[in-house]
Amino acid sequence: xxxxxxxxxxxxxxxxxxxxxxxxxxxxxxxxxxxxxxxxxxxxxxxxxxxxxxxxxxxxxxxxxxxxxxxxxxxxxxxxxxxxxxxxxxxxxxxxxxxxxxxxxxxxxxxxxxxxxxxxxxxxxxxxxxxxxxxxxxxxxxxxxxxxxxxxxxxxxxxxxxxxxxxxxxxxxxxxxxxxxxxxxxxxxxxxxxxxxxxxxxxxxxxxxxxxxxx
Length: 215
Hints:
By secondary structure, the chain is α+β, with helices and mostly antiparallel strands. It is built from six helices and twelve strands. The chain has a domain at 35-164: CATH 3.40.33.10. Strands 3-4-5-6-10-9-8-7 form an eight-stranded antiparallel β-sheet.
C-alpha cells in the first residue's frame, strides 16, 4: 500500500514538474529591430536640420566621397554622422570609443554570444579590412547594422548604422533599384552614367497617352 502511495506521489511530482516546465516561456531568439537603425533619436533618412536641432552644431565637419556618394561628415565626439549632400539626409552613423550604447546595452567589449542573443546569429565577414557581423533591416534591405569585432578576441569594438552601399556591386544594385535608399543617396541617372552601368537590358518605358499605352 505504501509503495502505491510512493509511486502515486512520484508520478504527481513528475507531472507538476512537466507543467511548470511547459509554463516557462522560451527565451526569444535575437533579431534586429527598427530601433537598431537609429541612435540617440537620430535615424537613417532624417534631415540634417533634425540632426542639428537634436544634437547641436558638430565639433568638426568635412566632405568625403564614398563609392561615388558625396557626404558631409559631422563629428560629435566619438560619433560621426554622414549626411548625403544631394538630399541633406542622414546616411551613416559611425560609433567608436567606450561611451556608445546600443539596444540592450550592447557596447564596446560585448561578446559574440551576447551579440547573437540580441541580434541573432550571423557569419563573420571582412568589410573594409575589418572583421564584422552585418545585419540588414527587416524592411529596408540596404540599411545595415555593422558590428566591428576584435579579430582575435571576437568582442565588439565599433558599430556603424548605414544605408551606404557596402560594396561597388551593391551601389550598382541600389542605383538600378531606385528605392528609398537610392533617393537619399542621390543614386540616379547621373550616378549610373558616371559608373558606366549597362542598362541596355532593362525594360524601356512605353509612351503613354490618355486611356492607355500608345501603339
